[in-house]
Amino acid sequence: MLLAVLASASLSLAVKTSSQLISLHEENWIEIMKGEWMVEFHAPWCPACKDLQKAWNAFADWSKDLNIKVGEVDVTVNPGLSGRFLVTALPTIYHVKDGVFRVYSGPRDKNDFITFIEDKRWRNIDPVPDYKHPNSKQMAVVAVFFKLSMAVRDLHNHLVEDKGIPSWASYSLFAGVTLALGCILGFFIVLIIDQVFPTGKKSAVQPKKDTKKDSNGGTKKGCVKFSSHLRHIMSCSGFSVL
Length: 242
Description:
By secondary structure, the chain is of the alpha/beta class. It starts with a helix and ends in a 6-residue tail after the last helix. Helix content is 48%, strand content 13%.
């Protein structure tokens, strides 16, 4: 009897997930580029996210009346999206209008969300700059690094928890791999630079001398040429020339 009461109490306390709440992931997140959206980034282990869950689901029930869509992203399952959106705190909420992103930082209650949309208060928030736009190339690169870091963490947990390898050995392994990859990458960078900008010295270009061939096939230097001109001028002026 007591177990039945506890079970019913736990069910009543459980938050009902709204049928209008859209789960976003790596494959379908691009849908938020069209129309108006409110998107929450959360994690199962986050206490603040759990506190927001009830209000967020209630807000999602109003999405059709507000002519918007309400979505959620689990960052533990989609690390690439947390990188694209530079999520550094949880929960993080974005307002999206036709591909323009704004970070929502107001009160987090159902009525506050509804008022935010109805009164178009998002107009008072500066959009995310272009270099941080989630659909930009640079943020796609950041997403790859977030995925890579998550993969490394999962591999570390697998080695320590499943294989029984000591933590220091796992860290040493990753440090060695990182050092080796850095050396290989540095070698190729130096090789490319050496091919594009060769370091060999070119032979110096010899200055061209002012010479003139004489009647005998020889050459006269510039000073001899100047002397002959001087003699001609002096003879025309009435001076005797030796």
